[in-house]
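Troubleshooting: if your tokenizer reports a length mismatch, compare your output against this known-good record of 302 residues.
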Amino acid sequence: MKARGRFEVCMMSLSNRISVKSLASGISVRSVHYKTSPSRYPKVNVKDVELNKPRYGFRKIRPPILAQAKTRTLFPNSELAKLYIEEGKRIPNRFMSQMDSERALAQFNYFQEKLAMDEPHFTLGKKEVFLPSGRICLLRPNAKHTPYQAKFLVPKKMNKIDLRDYLWNIYGLRALNITVQLQPARWVRNPDDLGRHRQPQLKKMTVDMPEPFIWPEVPQAKVDELNNQMDNTEEIARRNVASGSDKKKPLEAYGGMYKEKHQINKFIPRQFLKNSKKSMKILEKKINSPETRSQVSNFLKL
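Known-good structure output:
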């Protein structure tokens, strides 16, 4: 109790000192829980405040670099390299290898000459390569491919030069550029258990051609045949898992090939069926009797 009383006396003396000092200096001291009333808010016009400031206009507008200069020549890289030399700046590495426009022009003229004479514009391979188990399949193009591109599925041992020579020697197709895509092997689950294995990798090559190639449309008769076959297969699958009265429905798949023959259900009166069953039981009992068996054995001399 004495310690609490001393603490209250110290706090009262401290507050008196702060109030006296604040009155003397003319500056109000805010308390810990100070909250300004709305009447003391600063007077600001709503039109002068911009809540959503634009996100443009604050960047510095710089002039375009020399690499973005407009050129109307067949070999723009050489022209851009000359601009860097005139400005006294270092030539970027992407323009260093193509500064010689004369060599590029000579290669272009050589290609046009071989194209006109229908000869290969590249050096044909002399070493024969045998891939007896290899397959080269023409695939349908993706959405990113143009009509001047063709995609092939090739063995992993084949490279660009092999495919280029193969297309020229077999089909006479001129490959201007070839790119390779090696797809990663995917994990596949087994249908019977939870084991998994990797599928083999697929190697695909995209070839640029001088002339366009468009896949022919699939005939409508072939599409109708596949759709009909799929419908028949689904109907047979539904029949195999049918239950109840669904088993008695007629099966019209494949033009009625599996349709069961309709058997005539003859009408038999109830009383006649009852009397017939009764007489059949009497006849069976008489046939299986010991007297009848002994007569048959005597007749057959058994």
